[in-house]
Amino acid sequence: MTTTPAEDPERAVPQDIYDVVLIGGGIMSATLGAMIRKVCPQWSIVLFERLDQFAAESSHPWNNAGTGHSGLCELNYMPDPRDPATAERIGAAFHASRQFWARLVTDGDIDSAFITPVPHMDFVIGERDVAYLRRRYRTLRSIPLFEAMRYTEDPAVIAEWAPLVMAGRDPAEPVAATRYEAGTDIDFGALTTALIATMTAAGARVELGHEVTALRRGADGIWTVEVRDRKAARGRTVRSRFVFVGAGGYALRLLQKAGIDQTRGYGVLPFGAQFLRTDNPEVVARHADKVYSQAALGAPPMSVPHLDKRVVDGRESLLFGPYATFSTRLLKYGRRTDLFTTVNANNIGTLLSAILHNLPLVWYLLTQVVATRRRKLAQLRHFYPGAQPRDWYPVEAGQRAQIVKPGSGRRGDIAFGTELVTGADGTIAGLLGASPGASTAPAILADVFTRCFPELGTPWPTTLLEMMPALGTVEGMNHAEVQTSLLRTAHDLDLS
Fold first, then answer.
1. Given a cut of 80, is residue 477 above it in pLDDT?
2. Quick one: pLDDT at residue 10?
3. Is the CB of residue 92 less than 8 Å from the CB of residue 249?
4. Measuring CA to CA, how many Å separate 147 from each of 142, 150, 488?
5. Which residues contact 260 (CB under 8 A, 6 or more apart)?
6. CA-to-CA distance for 308 and 325, rounded, in angstroms?
7. For the residues 249-273, what does the mean pLDDT come to?
8. Could you tell me which of 354, 371, 214 has the C-alpha nearest to residue 296?
9. Residue 340 reports pLDDT greater than 90
10. C-alpha dihedral sign at 187, 247, 235, 243
11. HEC per residue, the chain
12. Cα 348 from chain centroid?
């Protein structure tokens, strides 16, 4: 890799060949850039973002629910209450995120304003779901990351934890809840901006309003990146030894253009979301948690209903949702033709098969798209019986591009989650999918170093292991290690 001195980004001079090109100005590119600055501060970096600001898509605080996804309250991560594997893996990944962010705070790279303590809860109604939650709690409480979780079927206790969900509810209705006090609300937009600032302060070049339109790898192994200045309507090329595609819904299309065999047969299906929001201080003051429940029958995992405390720019609000929406755009500020540009002869069969094998999901989306405000308020009142229509207004969240992968027997499978894809030679990597992406970005992106830069240390560079001791320790973390780390990171992140 070449070296370049730290420069003021306003005076940064374009390189003949960059060490790293980052595509997209969201949390993923920002996290990887911050990591590279820690591991290899001498590498030259340029970041291209197609919009005129960072974190305007899924990383924007109002385009997501801000949950620090850690497996605590997301019931879709544990459909079988006896199998904690996915919840435990995601919990360990988020634990590594906390360690990474805490280290950046103590090093003076960022401040802790992006993260706020907000307890995580589950709340369920009906005998079947109560039995499920009881069994889930019994499974999780023996795992160090989850052992501080509390459980109750007592309506009075639930009313203390989350008054809004119990006020006006039938006292004979079976209910249950779990609560974890040390949950968090995260402003991923503020975090993204802070991480990018650390990159530019160290000399990285950042170009807003510039869209990457094509990627070509030369015979010498160097990538040619075609970039279009959207305001000036002119293009140019830059060259780089390594390319990271953190472009959200546009990632698959760019990886397809780059000719990455690992994405052959892959497709995407876009899902949007709408929330109901209230800023009424009297309502907001009565709800201090993020409260999740079970998804409706046939609903995708990303549609798990939740009533969330949000803290953005120091202001508290509540969100309820999500309500699924549909658009052929792959980004909130994308184009209506986006979806069709990703369809080709290699994935059309996969996409059609996925649709045919998920007709309940298709029906669910159709009913959500045509749902009236009255119906949406009825869903809110099922969760919060005393909700008043005048207090709530709709907000459009970001677009999510769910991965569709070739399965067995030519079947297309919808994969809910986040997947890191790397080229065979390790000179390009990209992220596909959605939640829990942002919350677990440091752990996911540490694997970029493993797959693409093994010469820096395996399984991870020493610097990253020092920052995130929890990397790769899903089953090896004991009670004392977890408690010590939670207390330390809570202190460093001003959560205690």
1. no
2. 41
3. no
4. 6, 8, 18
5. 421, 423, 428, 430
6. 19
7. 92
8. 371
9. yes
10. positive
11. CCCCCCCCHHHCCCCCCEEEEEECCCHHHHHHHHHHHHHCCCCCEEEEECCCCCCCCCCCCCCCCCECCCCCCCHHHCCCCCCCHHHHHHHHHHHHHHHHHHHHHHCCCCCCCCEEECCEEEEEECHHHHHHHHHHHHHHCCCCCCCCCEEECCHHHHHHHCHHHHCCCCCCCCEEEEEECCCEEECHHHHHHHHHHHHHHCCCEEEECEEEEEEEECCCCCEEEEEEECCCCEEEEEEEEEEEECCHHHHHHHHHHCCCHHHCCCEEEEEEEEEEEECCHHHHCCCCCEEECCCCCCCCHHHCCEEEEEEECCEEEEEEEEEEECCCCCCCCCCCCHHHHCCCCCCHHHHHHHHHCCHHHHHHHHHHHCCCHHHHHHHHHHHCCCCCHHHCEEEECCCEEEEEEECHHHCEEEECCEEEEECCCCCEEEEEECCCHHHHHHHHHHHHHHHHCHHHCCCCCHHHHHHCCCCCCCCCCCHHHHHHHHHHHHHHCCCC
12. 27
Helix 85-106 / helix 188-201 crossing angle, nearest 10 deg = 50
Question: What integer pLDDT is reported at residue 402 of this predicted model?
Answer: 87
Which of residues 369 and 381 earns the better pLDDT score? 381
The tokens describing 416, both together, are: 């809910």
Q: Is a pLDDT exceeding 60 seen at residue 442? A: yes
Lowest mean pLDDT among 322-336, 385-399, 432-446: 432-446
116-120, 231-235, 365-369, 466-470: range with lowest mean pLDDT: 365-369
Please, are residues 147 and 131 in contact by the beta-carbon 8 Å criterion?
Answer: no
- How far CA 433 is from CA of 153, 372, 441, in Å, comes to 36, 29, 12
pLDDT digits (tens, 9 = 90+) for 78-88: 999 999 999 99
Structure tokens given for 206 = 């950042």
Distance CA 204, CA 201 (A): 7
Find, among 211, 257, 270, 267, the residue nearest to 423 by Cα. Answer: 257
Report, in angstroms and rounded to the nearest whole number, the Rg of the chain calculated over CA atoms. 22
Q: What is the rounded CA–CA span in Å between residue 29 and residue 135?
A: 39
Q: What is the pLDDT of residue 490?
A: 97
- The residue count for the chain: 496
Q: Which amino acid is at 87?
A: A
Q: Does position 428 have pLDDT exceeding 60, yes or no? A: yes
Buried b (16+ CB within 10 A) or exposed e, 55-89: bbbbbbbbbbbbbbbbbbbbbbbbeebeebebbbb
